[in-house]
Design brief:
Oligomer: single chain
CATH architecture of the largest domain: Alpha-Beta Barrel
Number of strands: 24
Number of helices: 12
Distance between the termini: 71 Å
Helix content: 25-40%
Shape: globular
Radius of gyration: 23 Å
Largest sheet: 9 strands, mixed
Strand content: 25-35%
Structural class: alpha/beta
Length: 437
């Protein structure tokens, strides 16, 4: 029997399809049992559902249909090449925040006009690469960055297309302070009361032109009112900029941040969100850009890990797995919750700390977790790791990073090979060239 195929939205209607379900008791991704993947690929392994990525992208794209728009997927959530190619086929643009992400986007087939380049600390090398790639716009975060772009563009005989990232200074209710980016005093964006002066500078310089206004207020947003408040403040700035005689703005970039469910949170109501956006954005005549990352891929991913040992210490049960903070840092870094369940049919119950093999007390996937009975050798599935899973993985303790697998219907493919020990030392020089000053 199949179960567990949908999530429910704010108003009770079925709004999102999930690629994971139990088939004859075994947890599967689309048409592929997860134990088959683990048996052939090993663990730890990240598994992604192509159907769910398509579903999330299509639902957001369709919801925004009343407005001229484009969805630019944010690579920092998951920059796997297979995911990028899938989104390219769907017609997405991308948002990148580093030269490395720009390189990845180009390799996946995205042209310059498909790319928005953001980030608070872009180097001159990265800014030059953005200009050479002909990106749609560079979202700047300081006056100094504007002047650097003007100089680099002058040297190339081009005009730099600029969006100003505004700090809208709105209060948001995110799950962790590290993912709030639009409150007063944040490192991100240009302070609200300085935006008009920076916009004027962009307009005045010979090799820059202002074509966008941008914001990003944070991640994991379930209450939509702060998001809409930020858009309203952005539109108010647009009126001031136009009032100053600057008529070049073509794009309103409202960032991403829509929340996804990790436990029992209700997914944002896209129809209500767009209903609030239309009267704000439509009168501007601008094209709306939106930059979702987690919303597109977060729930599409699963981390497969094998229980190495079950042990009892100090009145607590521990499940020691072959995945830990090196594979998924969110629990220890953000106090994040991820559902964990056995891949085989669940039986019984227990309370345990699910911990990894890394030599750190902070290495855990779950603490004091009520879950089905699990023993050494059992295969566990850690839910909702499609965003900020592999991209935040590390080689701490000299651990090779795991494999990545994409499932599409009844087939699957390894899309990132598991690292070997040789990979871990590939860049190290046995005979370095010593230099003197």
């Amino acid at each position: 029997m199949r179960s567990g195929g949908n999530e429910r939205g704010d108003v009770g209607e079925v709004v999102l399809t999930t690629g994971y379900a139990r088939v004859d008791g075994t947890l599967s991704c689309e048409g592929v049992p997860l134990d088959r993947i683990a048996g052939q690929v090993g663990t730890p392994t990240y598994v992604y559902s192509a159907a769910m990525v398509r579903d999330r992208y299509a639902r957001l794209d369709d919801a925004l249909a009343p407005l001229p728009h484009r969805v630019h997927y944010t690579l920092k959530a998951n920059s796997n090449a297979a995911i990028l190619r899938l989104l390219h086929e769907l017609g997405a643009g991308v948002d990148v925040v580093s030269g490395g992400e720009l390189f990845r986007a180009a390799r996946a087939g995205f042209r310059g006009a498909d790319i928005v380049f953001g980030g608070v600390g872009k180097s001159e090398v990265e800014l030059a690469a953005a200009l050479d790639a002909g990106v749609l716009l560079v979202n700047v975060e300081s006056e100094a960055e504007v002047r650097t772009l003007d100089r680099l563009a002058r040297a190339r005989g081009v005009v730099a297309p600029i969006g100003v990232r505004v700090n809208p200074e709105v209060t948001v209710d995110s799950s962790h302070r590290y993912i709030k980016t639009g409150e007063k005093g944040a490192k991100f964006g240009i302070p609200f009361d300085e935006v008009l002066a920076v916009a004027q500078l962009v307009s005045d310089l010979e090799h820059t032109t202002l074509i966008g206004l941008d914001m990003h207020i944070g991640s994991q947003l379930f209450r939509l009112d702060p998001y809409l408040d930020g858009v309203e403040r952005l539109v108010g700035l647009l009126r001031q900029i136009r009032g100053a005689g600057i008529e070049t703005v073509r794009y309103l970039d409202i960032g991403g941040g829509l929340g996804v469910s990790y436990d029992d949170e209700e997914s944002p109501d896209l129809r209500r969100f767009v209903h609030g956006l239309v009267p704000l954005v439509q009168p501007t005549g601008l094209t709306l850009l939106m930059e979702p990352g987690r919303f597109i891929v977060g729930n599409s991913g699963m981390l497969l890990t094998r229980v190495l040992y079950r042990k009892h210490s100090g009145g607590r049960d521990f499940l020691v797995t072959d995945a830990g903070m090196t594979e998924l840092i969110r629990p220890s870094h953000y106090d994040a919750y991820h559902r964990i369940e056995p891949v085989a049919s669940p039986t019984g119950s227990m309370k345990a700390d699910v911990v990894g093999p890394v030599c750190e007390s902070g290495d855990f996937l779950a603490l004091d977790r009520e879950m089905p009975e699990v023993n050494a050798g059992d295969l566990l599935a850690v839910h909702d790791v499609g965003a900020y899973g592999y991209v935040m993985a590390s080689n701490y303790n000299t651990r090779p990073r795991g494999a990545e697998v994409l499932v599409d219907g009844d087939r699957f493919a390894v899309v990132t090979a598991r690292e070997s020990y040789d990979d871990l030392v590939r860049l190290e020089l046995d005979h370095p060239e010593w230099r003197t000053s």
